[in-house]
Amino acid sequence: MSRELLHLTVAAIVYFEHKFLLVEERDKLTGQRVLNQPAGHVEQDEDLLSAVKRELFEETGLALEPSAWLGISQLKAANGHRYVRLNIVFEPTSLPAQYQPQDSDILALHWYSATELLQTALPLRSRLVSDAISLYTEGVRLPLSLIQPTR
């Protein structure tokens, strides 16, 4: 596999008052509106936790601190690319009164319970979205200390 087809990504699994935060965006391949966690690529010279906090802020306007992680997910997408995704948990006890996406690619923010998410008309960007929510609801929590800092 060519390295150009391998992508290291991070996703923010934000859970507040029994609901998950999802972003509405357009799938770049199909143009269809889809739901995803705030997520994106790790930039060159960026550590994993800085990357997920940056993506969370860009896509939602929220500056939060992570509390745990759910592990690593992998996906071979329809475009032939392979995505390796670290799912980082954020469990804020409060949120600012107002926040909004900083990235123009984000069309809207939505809060859904796991049950409500099954009933929404919008499709999920990929199975990675539902896999992360399943891991969270199953009680998986890995300590952030297992993610070694860049040295």
TrEMBL record:
Pfam families cross-referenced by the UniProt entry: NUDIX
Keywords: Hydrolase
Record organism: Rheinheimera pacifica
An example Gene Ontology molecular-function term: hydrolase activity
Keyword Hydrolase part of the UniProt annotation: yes
SUPFAM superfamilies per UniProt: Nudix
Keyword S-adenosyl-L-methionine: no
Cofactor: Mg(2+)
PROSITE patterns assigned to the protein according to its UniProt record, in alphabetical order: NUDIX, NUDIX_BOX
Signal peptide feature range: none
Cited InterPro entries: NUDIX_hydrolase-like_dom_sf, NUDIX_hydrolase_CS, NUDIX_hydrolase_dom
Name the UniProt record assigns to this protein: Phosphatase NudJ
Transmembrane parts of this sequence: none
Domain of life: Bacteria
Residue ranges of every copy of the Nudix hydrolase domain listed in the record: 5-137
